[in-house]
Amino acid sequence: MSETTLPTMTNIDGNIMPTSEASIPVLDRGFLYGDSVYEVFRTYRGIPLFMEAHFERLENSAQLVHMTISQSREELTQEIKRTVRATGASAEDNVYVRYQITRGEGPIDLHPPKELQTRYVIIVKSVPIWNPKHYSIGMTMAIPQVKRNPVNALDPNIKGGNYLNNVIAIMQARQRGADESLILNSEGYVTEASNSNVWFVINDEIVTPGTGNLRGLTKAAVLDGCVEQGVNAYERSIHVDELESATECFVTSATREVMPVYCLELDDGKIVDFPRGGGDQTRKIQRIYRDAIENYLDTHASNSFFID
After folding, report:
1. Interatomic CA distance for residues 138 and 259, integer angstroms
2. Cα angle vertex 130, ends 128, 134, to 5°?
3. Do 122 and 98 share a structural domain?
């Protein structure tokens, strides 16, 4: 994966600097405990995609971890805009924005003091450019040994700073020679990839896991687009035993959009092959998502970061 030439800039509590110069105190709870929540979105033509939904999901993550965000949505929006402009980007440049809220700086103690003020960290850079072969041919995927955390232990709808479950999963998949991981729960049901939602075509039906994964905003846009265009796609439980019958596979995320998978290695070593470059249903979903993006941009042009 490579990137274009925009400088990467970071905003920490209102102070903007090159990311190489940015730092946070070692007593920040985000560093000590992964005690933070975050969101990632990208822009098209200077317009932040699904920004309102990202804020709603951030606030839901904070509520799930009993965190009160000190900064208002309006303040964070203005600081994001300032950071985007600090990169020298224009409306023609597509940028990646990650904004993270930590519970703040405090004593080395698991229980946080009530008086803590949350800290925000905003990172802006060029949108990642994925390997073109991941679209023309597709990714390879493998099921790692590690299982998804139980939902009653760590709710997958907490988009938080503790990502070790996913880190281990992608490392184990890469050790097996795959590009991406497909994480199962302890009962053998599919949850998600390391940082994307996953979809299959099984018995001519387009399906994606409904539980055990983050409420993906790209996934939601695809599902809404399918409803609008009369395409039958839905969420349901998918057991690993069904995957040998799958005829197509793809992932969705903010930066990957809709990316095909052409090979899946199951946990027992069996290989399931899919059409290279994506089958008919995958290509249909790619068109539906492109339409969803265009519709959103047409109706949210006034949200551009380059309009005062």
Report:
1. 7
2. 160
3. yes
Q: Among residues 189, 181, 188, 192, which one has the least CA distance to residue 159?
A: 192
Bridge partners (DSSP) of residue 12 are 15, 121
Contact present, 180 and 261 (Cβ < 8 Å): yes
Residues 164 and 283 in one domain: yes
Question: Which letter does DSSP use for residue 223 in this model?
Answer: H
**144 plus 262 within the same structural domain:** yes
DSSP 160: B
Q: What's the alpha-carbon Rg for the chain, to the nearest Å?
A: 20
- Is the Cβ–Cβ distance between 233 and 226 less than 8 Å? yes
Alpha-carbon span 251 to 253, nearest angstrom:
7
**What's the CA gap between 114 and 107, in Å, rounded?**
12
What whole-number distance in Å separates Cα of residue 145 and Cα of residue 168? 9
The letter for the amino acid at 166 is: N
Which CATH number do you get for residue 86? 3.30.470.10
pLDDT tens track, the chain, 308 positions: 444 579 999 999 999 999 999 999 999 999 999 999 999 999 999 999 999 999 999 999 999 999 999 999 999 999 999 999 999 999 999 999 999 999 999 999 999 999 999 999 999 999 999 999 999 999 999 999 999 999 999 999 999 999 999 999 999 999 999 999 999 999 999 999 999 999 999 999 999 999 899 999 999 999 999 999 999 999 999 999 999 999 999 999 999 999 999 999 999 999 999 999 999 999 999 999 999 999 999 999 999 999 98
Are 180 and 111 members of one domain? no
Could you tell me if residue 184 is inside a domain? yes
Whether 130 and 140 have beta carbons less than 8 Å apart is answered as no
